[in-house]
Amino acid sequence: MFKKSVSFLADCLLILYIVACGTCKVNVIRGDIDHQDVYLNATERAKNNVMMTCISRSLSNRLILDI
Ligand code: FES
Known about the structure:
The chain is mainly β. 9% of the residues lie in helices and 24% in strands.
């Protein structure tokens, strides 16, 4: 298995769970997302095609991002 670390931009105070900026939003090509953000609405989350990389994670063994 090949793993690679990638850095993403993150510019909000999401750590405080009060503000979300959207800077880290990335398109997802394949995989299941564990949405932990407060930025996306329920409809956007259900589409399973974007994620906020500052806080959300993968539910599947492999998550392919369009970066
Ligand atoms: S860095 Fe602001 S929502 Fe992720």
